[in-house]
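Dear colleague,

Following up on yesterday's call, I've attached the two folding results inline so they're easy to grep. Please treat them as preliminary; we haven't cross-checked anything against experimental data yet. The first protein's sequence and structure tokens come first.
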Amino acid sequence: MDNHVHLVGTPEHADSLSRLMQYVGRQYVRYFNDTHERTGTLYEGRFRSCVVQDDVYLLNCLRYVELNPVRAGMVDDPGDFHWSSYKAHAFGLRMAMWTPHPTYVALSEKPAARQRQYRRLFEQAPDTGLEDRIRRCVKAGLALGSEAFCEQIANQRGQSYWVYSDSDPDSDPRL
């Protein structure tokens, strides 16, 4: 995107993603500023993340990220955005720094069938309620998944738990 980046990643350790973003903030921003003779922050806001339950939630997050340039009017097709992983998921294009997630791989044993299954996700109209939930969970640092999964993550973090209603995205006052 022009002013932010979306990443879907599965870290090896709990703090791996935040450490990566710290590194990017320290190294890449300095390099970019030096190269372009500028100062200051490069990104619009701070790093935000949410824990996502593997299954339909992860696939919907991939779809959300890969459709973001389409929603923003930057391209008509998600495969037309240069920085997207859509062509890797949907057509098997080999990409540097991309490893297919086990949830994606589980769509089918055969790569061609898996890619077809993935493309089918994009044939349906986006679920705007789920898109709103993804956006709100990332913004607030909440877990995204089933009620039991979200409760488990809240307990691990020592947080109190609020039930988030899929049918009413405005039901959670924290968001």
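Below is the second protein, in the same order (sequence, then structure):
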Amino acid sequence: MIETPSGKSAKDENFPVGSWLLPPALRPHIALFYAFARAGDDIADNPALAPAEKVERLTAFGQALQDGSGDPAEFGKAHRLRHSLIETNVTPRHGLDLLEAFKRDATKLRYDSWDDLIGYCRLSASPVGRYLLDLHGEVPEYRASDALCDSLQILNHLQDCQEDHRDLDRVYLPGDWMTANGVTIDQLQGQAATPGLRRVINLCLDGVDDLLRVAATLPGQLRSRRLAMESAVILMLARRLSTLLRRGDPIAGRVGLSKADFLAGGISGVFRALVS
């Protein structure tokens, strides 16, 4: 098998994936895009595969998406997404960019700077928002969408910084900030964040908050009221998670959104989109 399923699904994600807020006719297409992305991510995260093997499998997935090659039993998710993209007139570029990010996950374990990390997010996160904009027929002005998606990616990295290092030897914290604050990688496996590591986390959250200020313009730019509501909800949840990560310590324990946070963010986000 080309795929290496982890068992994860949309229910395991921190933020909504194709929620009921989005148009019912588009949700099946979004589900296909997510399934394709999940398959690629699972390959990249499989500790039993060597980096070269991961890249080879991800390359084959990309080829199948572009031209329909490969055994349908092996590349079904790529083939189904390919047909969906043709039906909806959406470019395969977004799916291919995600695969490039997964290849980077297989071969690049450290990031030198904030700009280096944002460059990764432009492949691993931005394509999701760009796909949704294109699917909804929105004018392709991606800046605010990129900012929202990139902020979500960094928030996830901060939540999982200990686990990513322990299980995959990946560190998604800017190396220059770690050096400047006297942070060594082994501190990620401590019982609590050191003062230096806390400063690095806060610098990342400062960057997230800058991104969220740009992302705040997204709901008002959208013609689709449903997509505007979805983006407003996600924006509210991202702000809440940023606040929780400033107050909490992701080294000492899991910092995440509660059911109450989802409910409050959902109500607030929908209301803001409706009155904007």
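For the second protein, one point worth flagging: The radius of gyration is 19 Å.

Best wishes,
A.L.
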